[in-house]
């Protein structure tokens, strides 16, 4: 076995964050009396994505992101809200969402049967990610899940991967593989840490960045084929 330790990103790789976000936002906007929910979502979703990018780049802290994103979104529609209160309410609804992509559970099950050790490696809020995993069909496949808030560091920081290495018995970079959809978080982080990377790119997006993954796959079967070829 060429690789042994598989580090999986969760959102947009195994867990369907878009579905989770849609359900949680619908619940939040219903209880807060927002009438034009589609307009709110259309503004909030790209705002939220851009703020997470700023977090990756070190331009924004996690606390700022969590406590201000709804303040900014509601302000756009002329309404002042308590950012912390909204954050807690949204977290409550989001933490109840465990939607996984079709085939994710089967993929992990096959990888376990082949002898790989599976780990989650995710940026996010501990309370949300832990509860989403508990509501999902994939939690039992992971030996351990590493969440940025718990680790005190985040992807793509090298320290995130160094801490993972210290937590996994027998871990070596040469036998580890980071798998995820984000070039700027998963691939850059793995590359910088000296770990081979797989860019999970189901939409076949063009890579216009200088970040180069070790491998690229478009679906779970291609990932399985890649790993079996490396054995």
From TrEMBL:
<dbReference type="InterPro" id="IPR052550">
    <property type="entry name" value="Pyrimidine_5'-ntase_YjjG"/>
</dbReference>
<dbReference type="InterPro" id="IPR023214">
    <property type="entry name" value="HAD_sf"/>
</dbReference>
<dbReference type="InterPro" id="IPR036412">
    <property type="entry name" value="HAD-like_sf"/>
</dbReference>
<dbReference type="InterPro" id="IPR006439">
    <property type="entry name" value="HAD-SF_hydro_IA"/>
</dbReference>
<dbReference type="GO" id="GO:0008253">
    <property type="term" value="F:5'-nucleotidase activity"/>
</dbReference>
<protein>
    <submittedName>
        <fullName>Noncanonical pyrimidine nucleotidase, YjjG family</fullName>
    </submittedName>
</protein>
<dbReference type="InterPro" id="IPR011951">
    <property type="entry name" value="HAD-SF_hydro_IA_YjjG/PynA"/>
</dbReference>
<dbReference type="Pfam" id="PF13419">
    <property type="entry name" value="HAD_2"/>
</dbReference>
<dbReference type="InterPro" id="IPR041492">
    <property type="entry name" value="HAD_2"/>
</dbReference>
<dbReference type="InterPro" id="IPR023198">
    <property type="entry name" value="PGP-like_dom2"/>
</dbReference>
